[in-house]
Give the backbone structure.
Amino acid sequence: MSYPAWDALTAESLLAPLASDPGPVLIALQKMQEHFGYIHAEAVPLIATTFNVSRADVHGVLTFYHELRTEPVTQAQLHLCAAEACQAMGARELAASLEGQVNAEISQVYCLGNCALAPAAVINGKLMGRATAEKIMEALA
Amino acid sequence: MRVFVPNDSAARSVGADEVAEAIERIAKMRGVEITLVRNGTRGAIWLEPLVEVEISGVRHAYGPVTPNAVDSLFDADFLHGGSHPLALGPTDQIEWFASQDRVTFARIGISDPLDIDAYQAHDGFAGLRKALLMSDAEIVQEVLDSGLRGRGGAGFPAGIKWKTVQQASGEQKYICCNADEGDSGTFADRILMEADPFTLIEGMTIAAIAVGASIGYIYIRSEYPDAISRMKAAIDIATLHGFLGENIAGSGKRFTLNVRVGAGSYVCGEETAMLESIEGKRGVIRSKPPLPALSGLFGKPTIINNVLTLASVPAIISHGAAAYAARGVGRSLGTQIFQLAGNIKRGGIVETAFGITLGELINTYGGGTFTGKPLRAIQIGGPLGSYFGVDRLDVSMDYESLLAAGGMLGHGGVVLFDETVNLAVQAKFAMEFCAIESCGKCTPCRIGSTRGAETIVKIMSSRDAAEIAEQKSLLLDLCEVMKDGSLCAMGGLTPLPVKSALENFPSDFQGALS
């Protein structure tokens, strides 16, 4: 998964179409992350100026949502579901067995909606049901 | 020859794309002409990938199919219903489906979810067409008479909410669909949006016409990328065909629909936090009153309903309130879309009238635990729902009975745990989850959850009976404070899983960490 490097001009052009939206801050941040993979520090004042809100407002939104990130993506992404239905199928043991064993950034998520095929994982954006350590390592290889 | 392979994300998570690719490749290699249809899932997630073949108008099922099994399916002449170890017979005759009462999910898995002609051929837009001939008040009355209650968890009568918005004054009104299905063990919203998105559009449009709203939002969690893209595509197609936009089905009425995407916050499933999030702000909940029905999105009168509530409306309007209200028990009328999940052999969607017992759901449909070990606990209604033991399999699955049993129906998720579960660990997790996901507005939720997790650890670590009793009493006291002192269900209902674990599984807390 590779993303283009931060570039203020591109960011501005991505934000411009959102000007008519009645509540643009969250979607503006999402747009930045979708394009650049993360939210660059310069995006905060840029969003504030573009939509005439305070930097504090933008920072507040940025820090509220678990998924918004301020560091670039440098590794493969592994999301492991840590919610109850997956716990019932050994999600805790699965997470423990993968710790330090994979070359990926591991994040916990709470429910991927694949609760009848637990445990669930997402590997670089692709959902996996009935996940096992072997299947995950193979997918990351 | 039509062959169906689901494109549902659960089916794809166990290889449906690879199966579809193998079928096309091998058919080509063998010189057999087929038309591959990527339908939605039928809801039997345990059979996914479920491949179906249409033979003289009857669909025959094979599943679960792996890419490696495709060659042998062709060898067995599955295109003509040949026998094979994976053969399940005509899909409609599989007992697991045949005994269900699919009303809201009547069209699930039958066609390509984005085929609007197929949608109309299966009764699609019949509810909308009928609604366009009714007065606003008649539509609302029909929803009231159906007894339809909020399927998101609160169970508030949908018709009353609609009536409030209808009677509210204001030029601009909104419809917001809550598709932030964050409860573990629930996936019915996702399946409906992925497999039958036009039904949600139709339900929202009927709601919009009834209350005079011109703009709608569907707030979908980011963990559902397939549902997001399919809903967006379906909105575009419906607009192109005149079912959304400036002139709905030639009626002169207008309604536009937008998709908003969440960003990994559980509390945004709470209706007022969702409104804040749609407005682009932090998902901090609002105090009520004012009710969102009077002052909701951008301060305007707003209907907020769950996906399943809105998706039930087309069938209610098209078949009449009486047919819907004839199902169910007591004040829980109509059907509920139960979701069987966790450690379960046959997980998936079971739509049936309210009043089925928990035991029937688990045994008849679920088939017991996946691991084959004895069932020990069942959590109903998501992370804020109670843990029941196997002594409560007699409980009737409806709003009132579950409340009386010390639980709640929530969004209809049923999660099974086998004997390896420790309920003290689950109770601790409930508190930790609340600490992670609390929006921070109410102190009992924001801080109480952390103190609660610590107290549970103390109980689990101690061998001193007096200290355990003291900590347990503190924990119960804290649960009361959280229940009474939190504005929304996040802090208010976290005590449910904690207290039910403590009451129903006291031995799990004894020396678990000592």
